[in-house]
Amino acid sequence: MKIHAVDVERHFGRGAKRVDALGPLDLDIRTGEFCCIVGPSGCGKSTFLRIVAGLVKPTAGRVEIAARSAHPAAMVFQDYGISPWKSVLANVRFGLDIQGVPRKEADARARDWLKRLKLADFADAYPAALSGGMRQRVSIARALAVEPEILLMDEPFAALDAQLRTILQDELLEICQADRRTVLFVTHSLEEALLLGDRVLVMSSRPGRVIAERVPPFPRPRTGAVRTSPEFAEMQGELWALLRGEVETAAESAGAQK
């Protein structure tokens, strides 16, 4: 297993203001697996991702990562997380600079990922000149340039319009099928999870726990054409039936706290 989580919990606040956000959660992610996590808002999906990344410590339990390096994971955020004062090339090269990779090699690796993500002509541009989709491509290129063992993606396409989201889903599918690195992908979109994932995990309302898992029956290499298959629609409906009650519970809880 690449990621092994045991009895992971995360609480925020204390006393009457304590919020039980996550767990207990047990989860194993295999090496090379693209695992998607879906669940209602506030169920701890993103919190778990940050625990795996080492950005947040669990309140209880542990996460073990079978890593070859000291910093095995790279993360892609919903809000891009790129530096507006750096050029596109400098943004993509940033992680390599931190690792001390020689500039010539770092530039070559960064430009290679810019080419793969259709950004080669924008290497000298700045984020303000880019569309939202292009900024997210920069963020993905930056994460992949450091060649992480684990790619963590926190709703990376949520802020994009439907057409652009479809295009980037297909691009990510192609890249990850060629690469086969371990990916943990958080999304609200059942369609996105079924298209991209080797396995889809469904989480409960807060505190989040895994209540179901499904394996999309679509062989790889896979293309966006699977979206139109009867099996895709059937599994999407099945997942929504599992998730709907949890979403309603989360909405009722949020309303009661106002």
UniProtKB/TrEMBL annotation:
<keyword id="KW-0067">ATP-binding</keyword>
<keyword id="KW-0813">Transport</keyword>
<dbReference type="Pfam" id="PF00005">
    <property type="entry name" value="ABC_tran"/>
</dbReference>
<dbReference type="InterPro" id="IPR027417">
    <property type="entry name" value="P-loop_NTPase"/>
</dbReference>
<keyword id="KW-0547">Nucleotide-binding</keyword>
<dbReference type="InterPro" id="IPR003439">
    <property type="entry name" value="ABC_transporter-like_ATP-bd"/>
</dbReference>
<dbReference type="InterPro" id="IPR017871">
    <property type="entry name" value="ABC_transporter-like_CS"/>
</dbReference>
<feature type="domain" description="ABC transporter">
    <location>
        <begin position="3"/>
        <end position="230"/>
    </location>
</feature>
<dbReference type="InterPro" id="IPR050166">
    <property type="entry name" value="ABC_transporter_ATP-bind"/>
</dbReference>
<protein>
    <submittedName>
        <fullName>ABC transporter ATP-binding protein</fullName>
    </submittedName>
</protein>
<dbReference type="InterPro" id="IPR003593">
    <property type="entry name" value="AAA+_ATPase"/>
</dbReference>
<dbReference type="GO" id="GO:0016887">
    <property type="term" value="F:ATP hydrolysis activity"/>
</dbReference>
<dbReference type="GO" id="GO:0005524">
    <property type="term" value="F:ATP binding"/>
</dbReference>
